[in-house]
């Protein structure tokens, strides 16, 4: 499953980063094994707000599509 498919309120764990701006996403703390909580989506679906390592982060759907979660 990809992060852009997760519904608000769900908690998932990063499995791997599959392409895209991999280094940038890893630098933001989205490393394998990290738990992520999806907080909300914008009215049109893009971007999504997540909580990772105690801080809030907004990602575009395209970026979230590169993050495989379980």
How would you describe this structure to a colleague?
The protein has 70 residues and is mainly beta. It contains 2 helices and 5 strands; from the N terminus they run βαβββαβ. It has a domain at 1-41. It has helices at 22-27, 61-64; strands spanning 11-17, 35-41, 48-52, 55-59, 67-69.
- Helical/strand content category: mainly beta
Number of helices: 2
Helix content: 10-25%
Give the end-to-end Cα distance, rounded to a whole number of Å.
6 Å
Model regions low in confidence, pLDDT < 50 over at least 5 residues: none
Strand fraction band?
35-45%
Order of helices and strands: EHEEEHE
User: How many beta-strand elements?
Assistant: 5
Shape: globular
Major β-sheet strand ordering: 4-3-2-1-5
Radius of gyration: 11 Å
Outline the biggest β-sheet.
Answer: 5 strands, antiparallel
Q: Taking all residues together, what is the mean pLDDT?
A: 92
Structural features:
single chain; 70 residues; mainly beta; 2 helices; 14% helix
Task: Summarize the helices and strands and which ones pair or pack.
Blueprint: E1 11-17, H1 22-27, E2 35-41, E3 48-52, E4 55-59, H2 61-64, E5 67-69
Antiparallel strand pairs: 1-2, 1-5, 2-3, 3-4
């Amino acid at each position: 499953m990809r992060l852009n498919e997760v519904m608000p309120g769900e908690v998932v764990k990063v499995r791997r980063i599959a392409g895209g701006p991999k280094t940038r996403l890893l630098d933001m703390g989205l490393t394998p094994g990290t738990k992520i909580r999806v907080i909300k989506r914008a009215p049109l679906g893009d971007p999504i707000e997540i909580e990772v390592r105690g801080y809030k982060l907004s990602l575009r759907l395209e970026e979230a599509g590169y993050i495989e979660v379980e």
